[in-house]
Amino acid sequence: MTVDPHTAPSVTDPDLEGQTSSWEAFRATLRAAGVEGAVEGHRSFSRDLARGWDRPIRLLWIDGDHTYAGAKEDINLFRGHLADRAIVALHDVLHTFEGPVRVFVEDLLASDDFGPAGLCGSIGWAQYRPKDGARWRAPREALRRRAARLIPLVQRGRELRGLAKLRYKISRALVPHAAPDPAAWVRAVS
């Protein structure tokens, strides 16, 4: 399932350059990948879709409004629908947007409702495990402390320059963000 208004111009998709929508390009990509019949596309804003949502979610991918208010609203709207052991993933956690990094740090890593968590490139993810998430508190807290150092640098809402940009790059480099080892993942969650 996907939800996106597919509008233009879009601050999250500036490459649209005056096109009226990304909807047709999205559908063409699904057709080319051979998955059009397996993906339920909703041409809507998440807040509008959430009003009538009543199904469990196994993967919640948040990559829309990168403001704190927007990312926070997305997690709040759909958190109550997460299936046990669902994965929540936020795009652009390690970019200079305030929303994804704050929601990842403050809502996922700081909560015992989530178990294993990490970053793969700039994608922050956590597994929803409200029954036993506390088991992973120590590694989540270690990751939270490192990622939280980025928040004061991106909260200003302006382009980073000079020493602030250098400080951000150094702090970001100290946040582990390599792809998870599949065998280690299976051992950890078993």
Total number of distinct structural domains: 2
Rg over CA atoms: 17 Å
Shape: globular
First-last Cα distance = 27 Å
SS-based class: alpha/beta
- Put simply, the count of helices is 8
Main sheet properties: 4 strands, mixed
- State mean pLDDT (0 to 100 scale): 91
Strand order of the largest sheet: 3-4-6-5
Low-confidence parts, pLDDT < 50 over ≥5 residues?
Answer: none
Strand content: 15-25%
Oligomeric state of shown chains: single chain
Number of DSSP strands?
6
* Element pattern in H and E: EHEHEHEHEEHHHH
Instruction: Provide the helix percentage.
Output: 25-40%
How is this structure best described in words?
This protein has 190 residues and is α/β, with parallel strands linked by helices. It folds into 2 domains: 1-44, no CATH class; 56-189, no CATH class. It has 8 helices and 6 strands, in the order E-H-E-H-E-H-E-H-E-E-H-H-H-H. The chain has helices spanning 23-33, 46-50, 68-78, 98-109, 137-148, 151-154, 162-173, 182-189; strands spanning 2-3, 41-42, 57-62, 82-90, 114-120, 123-128. Strands 3-4-6-5 form a 4-stranded mixed beta sheet. A two-stranded parallel ribbon has the order 1-2. The model has no long low-confidence stretch (mean pLDDT 91).
Keywords:
190 residues; alpha/beta; 2 domains; four-stranded mixed β-sheet; two-stranded parallel sheet; 8 helices; 39% helix
